[in-house]
Amino acid sequence: MSARLPGLGLRSRLERSPRSASPVRWPLHGPSSVFAKGMRDSRRSILIAGIGLGLFVFFYGSSIGTNYATLASRLDAIESTQAVAAIGSMTGQPINATTLGGFLSWRVANLMPLLFGAWSILALSGTLGGEVRSGSFEVLGAAPLSRRRIALEKVAVHLVGLATAVVLIAVLTWLAGVAFARLPGDDIGLGAALVQFAAMALCGLAGGAIAFAAAPWVGRGAAAGIGAISLAAAYLIDAYSGTVPAFDSIKDVSWLTWTAAERPIARSWDNASLLPLAVLIACLLAIGTVGFERRDVGATIRLPRLGLPGRPFLIRGPARAAFLAATPAALVWGLAIGSYAWLIGLSAPGFADQFRGDSNAARLMDTFFPGLDWRTTGGMLQIVFFDLALPFIALAGAVLVARVASDESERRLDLLLSTPLRRGAWLVASGAGVYAALAALCLVVAAATALGAIQSGSDPLKPFLGIFPGGLYAAALAGIGLALFGLGRGSLAAGVTAALAVGLTVLDLLGSSLRLPSGMLDLSPTRHLGQPMAGIYDWPGMALAVVLAIACLLVGAWGISRRDLAS
Questions:
Q1: 529: which residues sit within 8 A by CB, 6+ positions away?
Q2: Angle at which helices 274-294 and 147-180 cross, to 10°
Q3: Per-residue model confidence as pLDDT tens digits over 465-484
Q4: Which pTM does this prediction carry?
């Protein structure tokens, strides 16, 4: 296809028409441009993201003001966390952490690239593919707009959304400094907060830009997986470069390492480090734009599918079709998460040796993780790998849910239901295919984890089996998305699944620090899986995840059988 979309002769006819005083540049009803339509469609998600993340920082600031109101308490928190390099790697490098801004930067802002990154990856991997797959691209094709302009305006929507969220977060962070300052230097400047979170947004945007660049070639599902593993790798290389020799030798490939000193709310400035990151993002966005402009719309490279030994293997019919359609994306996500699991499994004995070599650190580990044998590879994988892998497995589930929901929005479901197939039965079969694809993803991750354990001279069985409870958790969240789709909220299905994946992880990681009620913390399913990488299972919790996945799927089937399909 040419770089400019072929019109339907609309402009020339309108210009020749005696009724038209001027040519019509935008034949669509509603917003006057792709950018305006995108801002209208995403305004709620932008406000929710900005206010939600901002309140998260604000309430964490209140926790610091309450629980660490003295200089001695803050020094004690820093020293106990940094006593062993492995623990310090988990929380990041403290910079002026005796101030409120420095403490926030150390304990909260270090997680922000992952949160911004999850948003950017899901948005940019499908922002153009979604138009193509939904059929709205043909409408845009009737307008005199080049594909380059469409791509750039779509990217601009996300950039403006990020900027809006940054402003909201910065304002709430500044208010936290005003309300909860307890020591000299606790005040937080609004300008410093703006620069701080703009830098964090850029770090997360890099993962989204990688997904955007890959999407024209491999499709949105696989592109999201590539972006997610790139972001996770950048985070891990930066975090563990001081404790894992293999990471130290390649730490300069992580863009988070480039910007490690840019912590304005901690009174540490390195604005020059943002320039190469901005150049990298610009180049990746340009690659994605050119790829969308030059390649045939919707054409992607065929990724390997998971071969099945015989036609009736485990699943058939719509379930088999859904499984095979989801397999390429699931395998990319599995390889991405599995690469991380392999590196951690390979390095786990080294982490354990560091803790064993320091009696104070060993005592601290026994206090923080009672009942967990952290001295084994499985125990260290539980601490270092499992909790971080859960949201990424669940995000993969969100991508697979979006694929099922697209069958209706892209009108394929009309054709499928022209056969003697009931709507509810189709959704149950498609959901089963999604759950099977998540099982295949977990199988890839489990194999990579076991390989790392074997290479480190450890028992591979517990780490191998321990990843599958994470698959049950992801299936439960995917089931919620499928229920929303069945009830007629297909546009929310993938977004809610992704929001739950990120939100529940944040709740689990930081809820105790915020001194939230135990009843609220127990709402997170991650607290009801046990410690499976070490062979400790919470059977009632896992059974609840299975029940939730099945029940939500049945609710979705009931809903879709009683409503009209989207027109």
A1: 469, 470, 472, 473, 537, 538, 541, 542, 545
A2: 150
A3: 999 999 999 999 999 999 99
A4: 0.70
